[in-house]
Amino acid sequence: MALSSSRSSFFLLHQRFLMRAVPVFNSLPRRFTAKSSNPKVTVLRSISIQNHSSSPPPLPTSAMPSPATDNGGGYRWKPMCLYYTQGKCTKMDDPAHLQVFNHDCSEEFRLSEGELQREHKPQKFDYLLVFDLEGKVEILEFPVLLIDTRTMSVVDLFHRFVRPTAMSEQRVDEYIENKYGKFGVDRVWHDTALPFVEVVQQFEDWLIQHCLWEKKQNGSLNRAAFVTCGNWDVKTQVPKQCVVSKMKLPPYFNEWINLKDVYLNFYNPKQEARGMRTMMEQLKMPMLGSHHLGIDDTRNIARIVLRMLADGAVIPVTAWRDGGSSESVNFLYKNRIR
Question: Where do the segments described as Disordered lie (predicted)?
Fold first, then answer.
């Protein structure tokens, strides 16, 4: 299918996304109170950690304003143009297209003046790479949002759809129709998806562009760390995909931050937040976009990260591989989501 034709289909299918910008909460949880004692922290290696979770701010009792309506006087949330995130949008001069789809990854994440004026804790990392994979058999989507912890802003994104290499074309078509057809983005996936090896190469070029990684060093990130909603993405799925793709596990995937564990030890909620949706409900933050569309989940996780930074959370590495082994993983917190 020609690119312009496929984008037209994508345009029509995505108009319904605008209706999701104002979510409804049927029931909002009661206010949480902090526990009287600090959570137990196990320091398994020499890293500097400031534990500020003994007196975290209380979780809110009323819904937070939605960035769909309160950012900078009239800003309204819009779905990302997924051709744009792949670097293939040719409608940047089309006013109708620009009115419906977002082409700026930073606007929706701007914090309020009050949040920016709070006293923020020093962070070990200048940058956080918010990362949320999609695809249980093979990776189908590889979205990353780059947060500057000093300015508490999103400065860039990297987003690629990933084409499986160990599945038949028929199985891939069925898989994508089942996964992305319900979102209306199966066509853009077919138009843009690349093999995992190529995606990693492009991602490394993007890291180099932002001075976050150099091949000649030991392969670890420079002043940055991955943030995931759970351990599965980096602990399990990336190594599994590397085996399928017949490539070595990049060493920058040897440590990561599980936001669930940081959230648990910072806010000490009475009810464990075992996923993104629960964290957002407890923080009274509306979930925007489509759940399990990777780029939208990554955007929502980034909003949680920024909220926690504004509330004074210190966000350390919570898990790392022992000697680079994909099987042996150490965890920072004893009090963690299992």
Answer: 51-70
Domain ranges, residue 207? 3-23+39-331
**Residues written for the chain:** 338
Determine which one of 174, 177, 272, 292 is catalytic.
292
Please report whether residue 209 resides in a domain: yes
CA 280 to chain centre: 13
Does the pTM surpass 0.85? The reply is no
Token digits for 187? 């066509």
Q: What's the structural domain count of the chain?
A: 1
Asked about 292 being catalytic, the answer comes back as: yes
The enclosing domain of 327 has a CATH number of 3.30.420.10
Structure letter (DSSP) for residue 229: S
pLDDT of 142-172, one tens digit each?
Answer: 999 999 999 999 999 999 999 999 999 999 9
Measured distance CA(119)–CA(312) in Å, rounded: 7
Residue matched to tokens 């680079």: 324
Q: Is 134 annotated in the active site? A: yes
Residue labelled with tokens 């949880």: 29
The percent helix, strand, coil of the chain (3-state, each to 5) is 40, 15, 50
